[in-house]
């Protein structure tokens, strides 16, 4: 860690340290030795809580923190302070850390006069690294200007970050905390996703209605693919043959042949007011689950036929979405209602609604 980064982290931790909740400490102690009996946990308070089958991690954009949910009970069990505007979140390949995009830029929706907003706090921009075992923010990487979403290389040595106000995707070396290159990808880049084989990263551009494929071996763009208006995110099938990309204002999801970098089908997402946002692919690749933002639903798409297989009403403006490793539950981050919907994928029904922090945004599941 260089001196500048160290000072930034020290200052951030100093400001946030007092905000660490007792529940996050209990969580950290409980998962420090997840394969041992609860009595082996270091904190007595953790003895009453056995390790969960998995945990759901939710960034809260306005709250500046992370909500931790026990996947066994679907209860919130902890909070970790992060910094300003945590949005995109990804689990490291070795499953020991969480990488979170943080931004000091003020929140500005479409059509907002940015000249009337407070100036951005560029010192708050970065990629926060959370150690899962301790439940603490342990490092800050330089992530370029206003990072929004992120992905990682297959070996975890590089972070790919969309820089919303700069029209580029920063590629960051984790070990040295250096930005290797910033790739132009169009205005207002957002979604960032690494292909299953680790050879490509797809970055969407809201402003230019496109997605750029980047070669991870050369850190150079391969091809730009046109989509419908305001593309938000992409997700790959497990075999890497196809990618699905949402277009919020276009109201569509596009199916991309990954080898040819061509759109093979576009589908209008059903439902009144549907604004396709996030996507989660089932572990077996048979379904893609799409959040519809102001449409307030999750829509299931059958990948064998590329047809829609049903939908369910969830919370207000669902955006971020994740799916459990067994494929049985989908979790949606509902920003305006400040909660998480738990959807049973067999019945396409909401099993539970979990209170999160202020304006939940992104989801990662371990």
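Q: What amino acid sequence fits the structure above?
A:
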């Amino acid at each position: 860690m260089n001196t500048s980064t160290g000072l930034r982290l020290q200052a951030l931790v100093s400001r946030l340290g007092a905000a660490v909740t007792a529940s996050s400490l209990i969580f950290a102690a409980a998962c420090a030795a997840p394969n041992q009996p609860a009595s082996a946990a270091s904190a007595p308070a953790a003895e009453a809580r056995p390790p969960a089958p998995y945990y759901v991690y939710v960034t809260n954009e306005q709250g500046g923190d992370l909500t931790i949910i026990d996947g066994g009970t679907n209860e919130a069990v902890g909070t970790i302070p992060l910094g300003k505007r945590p949005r995109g979140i990804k689990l490291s390949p070795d499953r020991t850390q969480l990488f979170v995009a943080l931004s000091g830029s003020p929140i500005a929706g479409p059509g907002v006069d940015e000249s009337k907003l407070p100036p951005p706090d560029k010192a708050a921009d970065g990629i926060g690294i959370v150690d899962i075992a301790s439940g603490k923010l342990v490092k800050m990487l330089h992530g370029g200007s206003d990072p929004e979403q992120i992905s990682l290389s297959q070996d975890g040595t590089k972070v790919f970050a969309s820089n919303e106000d700069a029209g580029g995707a920063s590629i960051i070396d984790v070990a040295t905390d250096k930005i290797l290159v910033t790739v132009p990808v169009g205005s207002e880049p957002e979604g960032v996703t690494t292909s299953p084989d680790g050879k490509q990263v797809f970055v969407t551009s809201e402003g230019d209605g496109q997605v750029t494929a980047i070669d991870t071996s050369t850190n150079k763009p391969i091809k730009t693919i046109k989509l419908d208006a305001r593309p938000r995110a992409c997700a790959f099938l497990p075999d890497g043959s196809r990618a699905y990309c949402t277009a919020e204002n276009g109201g569509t999801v596009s199916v991309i042949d990954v080898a040819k970098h061509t759109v093979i089908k576009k589908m209008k997402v059903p439902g009144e007011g549907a604004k396709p946002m996030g996507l989660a692919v089932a572990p077996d690749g048979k379904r893609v689950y799409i959040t519809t933002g102001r449409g307030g639903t999750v829509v299931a798409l059958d990948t064998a036929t590329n047809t829609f297989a049903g939908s369910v009403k969830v919370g207000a403006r669902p955006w971020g979405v994740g799916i459990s490793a067994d494929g049985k539950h989908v979790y949606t981050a509902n920003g305006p209602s400040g909660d998480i919907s738990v959807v049973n994928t067999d019945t396409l029904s909401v099993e539970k609604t979990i209170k999160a922090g202020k304006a939940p945004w992104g989801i990662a599941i371990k």
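Q: And what stands out in the fold?
A: Residues 3-16 form the longest helix (14 residues).
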